[in-house]
Each structure stands twice: as structure tokens, then as C-alpha cells.
Amino acid sequence: MSVMQKTTRTLALLAIVLFTTWMPSAYPETKVRIGIYHFPPVAGVGPDNQPTGLLGDLLRELRKVHNDVSFQVFYTSPKRRYLDYEAGLYDVIFFQSANWGWSGRDVTISRPILTDEELYVALKKPGRNLSFFDDIASHAIVAMSGYHYGFADLEVDSQKLQQKFNVEFSDSHNRNLQLIMADRPSVAEVAVISHSYLQMHLSKHPDDRSKLLISDKPDQQYELRIIARKNGPVSATDMMELLAPLIHNGSYQKMVEDWGLHLPPEFLNGFQSL
Asked: Core-most of 71, 91, 124, 185, by most CB within 10 Å?
């Protein structure tokens, strides 16, 4: 082999090495901004400013199985979630009902990946039974600010709600339960609490079960989905595909059950098509 041929071969090999070294930077990881707000036990923000609840666990597992995707967190609030979305501050939000203000927005929506319901809770008193919940509008209500409720036809405007109902808003399910147990009927007679949060609270404070009257009919039942920006870095279908490995190995179901939550009926059977 001539010197010229050796030089040409060396340059060709060098070009291949440089090309393969350059490839990762030419195709950077996908960045997906996830919107999160306080929605325990589904999602929350811990004292270390890290996501908590089911969503916190889910994001940790997604990062393990998809090192080509950067899942970044943007903290919003129930009230700000739509304004922040329209401002382009996040691309995807997990565990939303399609009926919670997303219709008419430029989004893609997955099929249901979680289900829950909200119940009415009052202080248990002599002579008080489940008929106490028959006319919710006649009672002082305490509810979470920015949440959608069945008794209010999913309206979230606090001024409109306070014109129609005797309702006080807070940012804490625990505070709402404490107001109920404080027996201050002028402030709060009925709290609206998610079934999953109520079960979590009672598992930690079993003595409270005997103090509370809990409705046998829900304020609302909801199927929660993934909402993603149309023409964003990923669609709702893409997110379902990213979720697929955690479905197939059983870890998503375990996370859901660990938080006292439930998968939609036939969810696992229907997922085989993904």
C-alpha cells in the first residue's frame, strides 16, 4: 500500500470517528416540560421542591427507562394551569379530566390512565345521616381553590361560585378536614375530598373514621388522562408510548396501587395494542 493510500485510509477512518462522535449532539435529547400542581396524592411538591405523589414516582421511573428524554418540571397551580399552558410554560400535564377546561384548547388528549372520585365529608353527629348530603347547596362548603366540582357544574371562577354557594376555598385538603372536625358550621359543614386522599388520611389517622360522615354517592367521578400541546415536542400518544414499558413490566400498576388509586376498567387489556 502506497503512502498516499495509507493517508487516504487514515483520513477516512478519522472522518468516521469524528462523525460518530458528533452524532449525539446532532440529535439532542427531547426536552419535555411537565406541568405539576398540588393534587394529592396524585401529585404535589415536596419540601425539597421535588415532585411528590404518584406523579413524582412516575417521573423518576420514566427517567430511568428513557435517557433520551429530558423530563423537566414546571410548577403551576390549579388556577394558573391554563394561563401557564397558554403562555407556553409547559408542554404536558398528567392526570387531567378532559372535562376540566381543556376543550377548545390546542391539545392532544390520551385515553384514561387513572380514575378517582370525590366525596362529601361532614362531621358525624347524633341524628345526622347520609340524607344530610341530599342538598349540598344548603350547607357551608369548604373546597380546594381552582378545582372543578360536580355540585358546581365544574365552574372554577371563585366569585361566581361564592355568589351561588356558601363556599370557602383553601389550598389544603388537611385544613378542610380540620375545619369540618372543628365543628364550625358557619364556616364549614361539608368538605369535598377525593376518595384517594381521604383513604390516605384515614390510614394515617384511623381515629378520624369514627368522627366523619362520608357520602355514599360521589360529587363526581373522573377518568384522568395526559394532556399534551398540539405540535409540541411530544403528543399525548407519544407520552402513552413512553409510558408503555412501565405498563408492561407492572411498575405503573404498582405505583397506582401504592398511592391508593385505581386504573380505569379494562386499562391493562386495552394497553396491549400500544
From this structure: 91
Q: What is the DSSP letter of 37?
A: -
Confidence of residue 255 (pLDDT cuts 50, 70, 90): very high
Q: Burial of 157 by CB count in 10 Å (0-12 exposed, 13-18 middle, 19+ buried)? A: exposed
The position carrying cell 387489556 is: 269
Here the cell at position 202 is 384515614
Q: Tell me the per-residue pLDDT of 201-217, one tens digit each, with 9 for 90 and over.
A: 999 999 999 999 999 99
Q: Which residues have C-beta within 8 Å of that of residue 208, sequence separation ≥ 6?
A: 177, 181, 201, 202
- State pLDDT tens for residues 11-53: 444 444 334 444 444 446 899 999 999 999 999 988 888 899 9
Segments of 6-75 assigned E as strands: 30-36, 44-45, 51-52, 69-75
State how beta strands 167-170 and 30-36 pair: unpaired
97, three cell numbers:
379530566
Q: Which amino acid is at 161?
A: L
Q: pTM to 2 decimals?
A: 0.85
Query: What radius of gyration do the chain's Cα atoms show?
Result: 24
Cα–Cα dist 71/261, whole Å: 23
Sequence-ordered strand ranges (E) for 99-189? 107-109, 114-123, 141-144, 167-170
C-alpha cell at 38: 398540588
Diameter of the chain measured on Cα atoms: 104
Burial 241-264 (b: 16+ CB within 10 A, else e): ebbeebbeeebbeebbeebbbbbe
- Count the Cβ atoms, other than its own, within 10 Å of residue 67: 8
